[in-house]
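Re: the 646-residue chain
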Amino acid sequence: MGTLPVVNWIPGGRQAPWYDTVITGWLSGSLIVLGGGIVLAMLTRGWSPPTHGLSRIARSSASRPSRTGWLLAGAAFALYALMAHAAFDGVPLHLDELAQVAQARVFASGRLWMETGPYPEFRSALHFLDDHGRWYSQFPPGWPALLAVGVWLHATWLIAPALGAVSVAAFWGIARRACDAPVALAAALLFAVTPFIVFMSASHMNHVGALCFSLLAALMLCRLDDGLRFAAGVGLAIGAMATIRPLDAAAFGLPAALWIAWRVVTRPVRWRELVASGMGVAVMLGVLLWYNARTTGTATLFAYDALWGPGHGLGFHTPPWGEPHTPARGLELLSLYFLRLQTYLFESPFPSLLLAAAGLAFGAHAGPVVRYWLASGALLVAGYWAYWHDGFYLGPRFLYLLVPGLVLATVDGVRTLSAKLSPGLWRNSGMWTLGLAAGMAIVVNAPARFAQYRAGLSLMRQDPTRPARELGVRGALILVRESWGAQLVPRLWALGVSRPLTEALYGRTDACVLEAGVRDLELRGIRGPAAVAALLPLMKDSLRLERSQWSPDASERVLPGHGYDATCRRRILEDRAGFTVFLPVLARDDGGNTYVRDLHARDSVLLSRHAGRTLFLLRSDGPAADAALVLEPVRLDSLRAEWALK
C-alpha cells in the first residue's frame, strides 16, 4: 500500500490526484541516480571507499558512547534551532501549534484556564472551550506544560529543538545496543538529518514531545537489567506520552507492558519491574486525570471530546464534520499517509520506504527493540485507521513515531543489499547510487521543501503585537479585525451552537442570511436550543450555494440572486480593505494591551467594561496575504455613529 494508489481505487472517497506526478518523479529520479551510479562505478573501477577508516570512527564512537551522544545531540539541536527560525520564523503557524502555545501562556501564568467573562465570543478560538466563563485548550496538558518553560524563557521555539536533540541522543543509545557500531552510528546520523525529523523538530507540534518520550521509553526498556529505576522510567515516559498524545501512548505502552510482563514470566523474581513501571504510568496518568477533572469536570472526559462531542473519538461513525468514517475511508487515509511518507521521510528521488522494506524483509536485526517497534507501529497504524481526521502537516504527522524504526530498517537494508551484491562493479554501483540519491535529497529535494515551508502561511507569521510595540501603545483596548466569516463563527458559538453544528451552518448558509439570523437572536437575547431551532432552517438552500467571489475570504458562502443589505455590503467592503487572524494574538505577549475580536455593534457590550481605555483597530493593510498590519486609533463616538447606521 505504501507505493500503490489504493486511495484512488476506492470509489466515492478521497483521492490523491498528485499520484501521477509523484510516480513520474520517482521513476525519473530512480533512473537518474541508478544510471549515474553505474557510470561512476565504471569510471572508478578498482577504487574502493575508505570503509576501514569509517569502521574505526564507528568503533571509536561506540567506545565513548556518552561523548558521541552529546555530540550528536548538540549538533542536532543547533540544526533544528536554526531551521526553526529559517523555515518557520520561530513562531507557531499551525492551528494546533497556536492553540497549545496559547494554553502554555495560561499555564505559565500559574492557572489552568483563563476567565472569559460573560462575552466569550470576543476571545473564542476554534480549539478552545468556552466553559461557563473558563477558557482553555482542547489538547491534553503535557505539551503546553513543556511549552510553558519556553514561555518563561521567552523562547517557545527552543522547546521542540531541545526535545528533538534528546530524541537523537536516545536513538543513539538504542541503536548502539541493538546493532553493531557502524550500523548504529550510521542510523543515528541518518535519524538526526532525516528531513521529516528536521522540519518537525523545528516546529511547535506536539508530535516532537511524543516521539522523544517514546524513544526514552525504548531506551529504558533496553536497560531493564540495570536496575528498577529504568523500569520506573519506562512507565514515566509512557505516561508522559499519554499527557501529550494518548493514542500514541497506548500504541507504544501496550507492547512495553508485554515486554516487561514477559520478563516476569521467564523470571518471576523480576515482578518488581512490573510494579515499578506501573507506578510510573500511574503517576503521569494521575496528573492527566486530575487535569481533566479540573477542566471538563470528569476525569475520563478529554477536552476535545467535551468540545466536539463523542464523534471526535476513535471508531467508525459520523465525525464532528465531514462524511461518516468507515473502514474504507480509514483505508483511504492510511493509503494517503504512506504515500506521503514515501516522499516526506527522506525526500529521496525514489520511494523513501524502499530500503526500509528491504531491511525488514532481509535484514539481520530482529532483536527485541525491532520487535517492539514493529508491534507498536502496527498498533499505531491500526489506531489511526480508526481515526477520522487527515493528519497532514509537515508530512503525514500521525505516522511520525514510525520514523526511528524505519531509519534503523533503512540502514539495515543498505547493509543487507550491499552484502548481497557481488563485490566489484555491482556493489560499487549500488553505493554510488545511494550516494547520488543522498546528494539529490540534500541539494535538490530538501531545499525545495524548505522553500515551500518558508513561503507558506505568511498571514500566521505576522506578529500582531508588533504595531502596538512600535508605536509605544500600552494599556489600550485593541479591536482585531477578522474577515466577516471569521466573525460569524464565534458569534454562533456564543449563541450556544455546538462546534460541529457551527461548521455545518457556516458552510451551508449564505453569509448575509446567517448574519441576519445571528443578529436577530443576539438582539432578542435568545441562546441555546431555541437559537439552534431558529438557525437550522437557514440551511434550506445549501445545495444552491457558491463560494464567495466578492470577499477575499473564499470560505464565505453566497446564494445566487440573494441581495445583500447595507450591513452585509459593509462587511464585504471591510474584507476587501484588509483583515487579519485573531488566534495568533493569543499565542503572543500582549505587551500590556487587551486584544479582542472586533464584532462591530456587538463591541458596545465590551466597551462598557473597558471604559476610559484608548481604542485602536488592528487590521491588514489590504487583502493580500502578506500585507502589513496597521494599527489605527479609533474614536468611540465614530464607532457609535457607524453602529447607528446598521
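The mean pLDDT is 90.
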